Amino acid sequence: MARPFxxxxxxxxxxxxxxxxxxxxxxxxxGDLQHARVFTGEDTANAHLAKAxxxxxxxxxxxxxxxxxxxxxxxxxxxxxxxxxxxxxxxxHGKQEQVTHV
Amino acid sequence: MYKYNDFDxxxxxxxxxxxxxxxxxxxxGNLTEDEFKPLRLMNGVYLQLHAYMLRVAxxxxxxxxxxxxxxxxxxxxxxxxxxxxxxxxxxxxxxxxLTDIPDILDALADVEMxxxxxxxxxxxxxxxxxxxxxxxxxxxxxxxxxxxIRQWSTDHPEFQFLPRKFKIAVTGSExxxxxxxxxxxxxxxxxxxxxxxxxxxxxxxxxxTPMIGKVLRDFLPINDLLPYLEAVVSVWNILGRRxxxxxxRIKITVHENGIEAIRDQVETRFAELRPxxxxxxxxxxxxxxLAFAKPAFKSAPTDGFDVAYxxxxxxxxWVDTNVAAHATQGYAIASISIKAHGQTPGDAxxxxxRVIASLxxxxxxxxxxxxxxxxxxxxxxxxxxxPQIHAELKTAGLGTANIGLISDIIACPGMDYCALxxxxxxxxxxxxxxxxxxxxxxxxxxxxxxxxSGCINACGHHHVGHIGIxxxxxxxxxxYQITLGGDATETAALGxxxxxxxxxxxxxxxxxxxxxxxLDLRQSGDETFLQTYRRIGIEPFQTALYDPQDTHAHAAx
Lengths: 102, 557
Hints:
The complex is a heterodimer of chains A (about 100) and B (about 550). By secondary structure, chain A is α+β, with helices and mostly antiparallel strands. Chain A has helices at about 40-55, 80-85, and strands spanning about 10-15, 20-25, 30, 60-70, 75. In chain A, strands 3-2-1-4-5 form a 5-stranded antiparallel β-sheet, with helices on both faces. In chain A, a hairpin with a 5-residue loop joins strand 2 and strand 3. The longest helix of chain A is centred in the middle third of the chain and has 13 residues, at about 40-55. The model of chain A has no long low-confidence stretch (mean pLDDT about 95). Mean pLDDT of chain B is about 95; it is low at about 555. In chain B, helix 1 runs antiparallel to helix 2 (about 35-40), helix 3 (about 65-80) packs antiparallel against helix 12 and helix 18 packs across helix 19.
């Protein structure tokens, strides 16, 4: 039996700045995880993944990753994604400085 | 130090112009990411977790003050005001935008620096003893040989698409400060009768499959250096496995084929290559050596140093810990720790870089070194200047007296920055350093090297740490394995894994238990952690880690 599809978002790094970005409902990119589109169906996710990969002028290293939705708040399921949404732990740099939109 | 000639200047300028055009073509859509990625990697540009990272080579760890000032300018203008010095004598900028990198490369070229071959399957930045040219135990300055190798290996047409990356380290002293036995090729200078040559060590490396290098030639005359290196790399270029990147490094080639078979092939290839070297390389070496002539050392009294040493306990502690013997009477080698307790190992702010540059210019014959241990060295300082140097370092937050102590931790960037990492390294290093500073124990503990890597690629050299810490992802949780008994010196050894790993919350208490066990078990204050470990073995430390009640019982007996 196929594994059930867990909720996912699409993420990448921005081509120019290299910062972490997420695909939105309108297939554009945001730096804010809370504005990411959550995919609950595999076919839809893969279709939008293909669209996201095609935006090579904006995004690098596009991939799907698991997400939890807790009371409407998007929460990464893995610590790597948690660090990506925040920034490094040794300095208040990256997203903890400011949320950028692309 | 070596000065670029017209060829060097034009070569770097041309490469930078090519890269500027490549960036433009990538942004315009004329290059795909798959096409662009190998091009950016050839120029030291990685895409990490939060941003691009630019890795800049500091050949054999040598800088002058002008270069250090320029690194500070780059950090301020195009990054976030700091740089990270690495275990391979590079500096990394963690936050450049892609469009700024061509300008950064031009700024580097202005001070004769570049990022070429700091990534990719090529011969990487050649590293050397950070006390080179100054150490009291040195046979000869290894840097001219390292520069000769740099010139030979840069853009070498045969070696641009090797099976994997290839790292060479050179030391000129009996005491190995360059971790030569953990490199693809380690060159250890030796003297036979009246002749200087190299012991050639091959097939060392850390990473997924750690190995201590094996002696390929016990004495290689200087005149044979380049053809012999070319023979080694060309044999590996043919034999090295390209079917599996995890088995591609020369350490696996040596392991699978045996050192004797490799030696036979290398000697055969060397016999073919040797006649093609008609002496130009040796003429070049002689020119290079002129560029590394010793500074004009001064002769001056050291009374001021003696008075400060007697009367200022903070200065005395710093001298005892951070200052090493120099080959010249009245001079010393001063190590500047960029491991202030609780700070990120290897990071220096732009302001700190400028302070170091100023000290080098005024007191250090304009020479600076970067160590693989992620510290900065003023290799030539007169003892009479040390009190002033120390005072200025303290003001800049650079006066930490911890070289070789438990808080002088090597740590890779880990998952705070690195896209390959499986766990964080930096916070673990910060916690350990802070804790042992609070306990005011590190000088009593003495020489103890902790090395932390955030993944099995082992950029933090954990395998050769007296205490090694490896961060892993265990079922979605950071987990830290401990190895004991590693050694990065001429008595190189790989550490032994002590048992199951610890969570991020439990690793600091675990290290504390290990260190307290050592303090209980050592025969005297002079017996180092490594000596104690070698005398009593791993079991008492396993007990301390996993069955601490027994440790307390023994300690009470």
